[in-house]
């Protein structure tokens, strides 16, 4: 049907093209002829053109075709606009969700940092208290050791010296017992049979922090032990020097008495 409706238009176009072809061809022939001695203009004769006949039947409604095309283009454009706004809305929702996740993660990190800093402050406070207590105990112990050493230097009786050595050995034994007691108190049992994954993670974190504290205490104790050992060696050297000077003075007195 469309080919039949388009046939008159095609015939009309063919006729127009033929007219212009013959017209320009005739003009070209006139221009290519040699010029005569005098120019006589020829009258232009319009050829008889027969307008194309539109066949009877259903006529083509170009306005309807144009309207349908416009409606189709408008529908496609609306579909594209809706798809664009839908994708943009989805991207905005994803961006908002991402921002919320970032803010949540940031707040969680800040809370974790705060808890960690509080625990670190508490641990440092405990260490300071423990260090002060140990320093006080060490000062008392050094005072007691100095008093005992002075008594040892002034006492020349061997029995008293043996009794003091026995007391020291007894004290060492009591120190060992104290050490065993402290270790038994610090050795905790691990009840992890009925724990879930979160509880196990918390327990592992607690044990790690406890091990960290123990390592710090161990380092401090090693430093204190080395310091005490150095002080003991210094005191021993002083005692030996003092005894040498006393023996030298006694021998000098004996030699003087013999001469007399």
UniProtKB/TrEMBL annotation:
Residues 106-188, 241-260 are annotated as: Disordered. The keyword Cell membrane does not apply. The chain crosses the membrane at residues 12-32. One of its GO terms (cellular component) is troponin complex. Troponin T is the tropomyosin-binding subunit of troponin, the thin filament regulatory complex which confers calcium-sensitivity to striated muscle actomyosin ATPase activity. Belongs to the troponin T family. This is Troponin T type 2a (cardiac). It comes from Myripristis murdjan. The gene is TNNT2.
């Amino acid at each position: 049907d469309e080919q039949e409706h388009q046939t008159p238009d095609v015939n009309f176009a063919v006729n127009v093209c033929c007219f212009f072809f013959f017209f320009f061809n005739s003009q070209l022939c006139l221009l290519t002829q040699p010029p005569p001695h005098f120019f006589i203009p020829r009258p232009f004769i319009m050829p008889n053109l027969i307008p194309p006949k539109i066949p009877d039947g259903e006529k083509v409604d170009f306005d309807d075709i144009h309207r349908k095309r416009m409606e189709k283009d408008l529908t496609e454009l609306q579909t594209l606009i809706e798809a664009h706004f839908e994708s943009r809305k989805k991207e905005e929702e994803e961006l908002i969700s991402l921002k919320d996740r970032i803010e949540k993660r940031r707040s969680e990190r800040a809370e974790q940092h705060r808890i960690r800093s509080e625990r670190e402050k508490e641990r440092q406070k405990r260490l300071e208290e423990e260090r002060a207590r140990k320093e006080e105990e060490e000062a008392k112990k050094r005072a007691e050791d100095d008093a005992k050493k002075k008594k040892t230097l002034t006492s020349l009786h061997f029995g008293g010296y043996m009794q003091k050595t026995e007391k020291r050995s007894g004290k060492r034994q009591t120190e060992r017992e104290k050490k065993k007691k402290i270790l038994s108190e610090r050795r905790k049992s691990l009840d992890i049979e009925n724990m879930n994954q979160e509880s196990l993670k918390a327990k592992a974190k607690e044990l790690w922090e406890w091990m960290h504290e123990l390592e710090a205490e161990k380092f401090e104790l090693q430093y204190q032990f080395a310091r005490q050992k150095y002080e003991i060696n210094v005191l021993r050297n002083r005692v030996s020097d003092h005894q040498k000077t006393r023996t030298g003075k006694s021998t000098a007195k004996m030699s003087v008495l013999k001469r007399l």
